[in-house]
Amino acid sequence: MEAGAPSARSRALAVLRVRSRASAVGLLPAALAVVLVAARATGRLAGDPWPTVTLVVCVVAAIVLLVGGAFAAVVLRASPAVTPTVPLSEAAAPDLYRLVRDLADRMDVPPPSAIALTPDCDSWLEDRSHAAHRRGAARVFGGAHGPVGPESEPGAAPVLVIGSPFLWWMRVAELRAVLAPVVAGTGPSAHPDIADARGFVRGLDAAVDVGGRRGLGWIAAPARLLLRLCRTDAAEMERGVAAAASERAQGVDYGLRIVAQEQVGLAYAGWDRLLTRVALPAWRMGRWPAHLDAGVVSALTELSRRDRLADGFTSRLGERPACDLLEQPGLIDEATSLLAARLFHGGPAEAGPDWSPVDWAAYPEEVVDRKWRTEAARLHAALDALAVPAGLPAGPAGSPAPAAPASPAAPSGSAGAAARPGRSGASGAAGAAGPATLAAADSPSPAGDAFAGPTLERVLGYLTDLGGEGAAGEALAGRITGELAREERAAGPAAGAGKARGADAVPLFPLQPPRSGRDLLADHVTAMVCCAAVDSAGATPGLDWLDGPVLLVGGDRRSDLAPRVLCLVEEGNPEPLRDWLSALGVRPEKPVRLI
């Protein structure tokens, strides 16, 4: 017997004692009522005040039994939380099921009842044999759609949930070593006391949720109390189960597991950067990368190349990848990628016209370029709202001279109002660069002409702050923040997909906290600079697997733009950025194309 097994079972019994004591408290008034009624029937409690006392106790007992019965029904019937996953049938992954069953046979434990994938770098066992889950499975799989899944049968072994990035990054032997201690957990899970204790705790947790959502304090309050009473024992029970599973798995690929754990940490680092730097910009544009798991291989390969500590890790790529255990890895990757967008961003559960997939080859053009131009349009819409003139006079040497911000109360006939393309929103700002404007911009403007349309010079002139007070930047950042808030309220996490969203529209695991106004302003100015570089200097949008959207000049990534933009935004000093633009041949006075 493993060292942790006795501890896990003793802690399970402690949890069950809490349940027994709660049942005893609920039955105590009924037991007292039975005693009083029996004593009255035999004449041992004759005369006053016993008739009244017996009546009161019987009424209290009936109320307690009614409330206790309703509470017990909620605990038994409430559906415990289930992690959203992509189910993986045996027909879709026969080799993976065979590998898992072989692991279970070697460790002499029951095999998991099913396998599911999650878009995260973790693996665990999840019990889905609750009665509510069986009812849900019957509705989905029953009748004309086939029998109920084995994972929902009473007393079924738990479901093995595997992080999908592991399948694409790890080799088959590494995945086997990592899954061994997880699969070994089905042994302790099969013990009746541990299974009952887990079911009781899950039921209480579900009752707290039901009581909170429906405003039933008489259900939520006692459930929270019971959870507090058994919290320590339940946590120690799970530690004992984990210790027992780890000890049982030591005889299976133990040496390889140490090496494989290094790949787990590497996979987590690459996956996190892929989601926050690459996937998140696409999600905000109403697009979702259809092959995130394939992308994590490229991201981790790049991370291995950059990190000296990861030298030699890429040599493993010649071995058989674990995704070869799937029959159709591309379809599975697409399903988990859509689930990732739903969990981490709140996107719709299904693709639609305003929530469509994007391949990696099309990412620079369909996401990066569109992101830059949308943000540039929003930036100019904010300038329009501040009544900033679109035309700035040229300086003595033919270069535009910075102009002071126009007053928001400028008369309607002023240059700012006349050049204003729209009132607000990206579409209004986009109208500033019509075909005639863009055609006229192909030829150099003579000295002294006004620069019409959405130009980078307009942004540089507005943000130039010789006094260093930063009032112009604060006003512009506030406008952008307000516009973004309005867009998010109108369109939700997936732009334009409000009608397609269901109750999963709020992300369960948000990736990033809200960004500050200064950060948003820097992002929008950077986007404007990139648009100008693409339109007037032959630069191109690109994708870096670890950093997301990047600007490519001559096929090389330019990573020296960010500090120059920050110098403009935070200090009001445009000279470093002007020098950078001049070196690349970017014309700030030339209108850019917006969408």
Summarize the SSE layout with pairings.
Elements: H1 4-41, H2 50-77, E1 86-88, H3 94-107, E2 114-118, E3 123-126, H4 131-141, E4 159-163, H5 164-169, H6 172-183, H7 186-189, H8 192-214, H9 217-248, H10 254-284, E5 287-289, H11 292-306, H12 329-344, E6 356-358, H13 363-385, H14 415-419, H15 425-430, H16 435-440, H17 456-463, H18 471-491, H19 517-537, E7 540-544, E8 548-553, E9 556-557, H20 562-571, H21 575-584
Parallel strand pairs: 2-4, 5-6
Antiparallel strand pairs: 1-2, 3-4, 7-8, 8-9
Tell me what you see in this structure.
It contains 21 helices and nine strands. The protein is an alpha/beta fold. The strands form three sheets. The protein has a four-stranded mixed β-sheet with strand order 1-2-4-3. Helix 8 runs antiparallel to helix 9. The chain is flat and about 105 Å long.
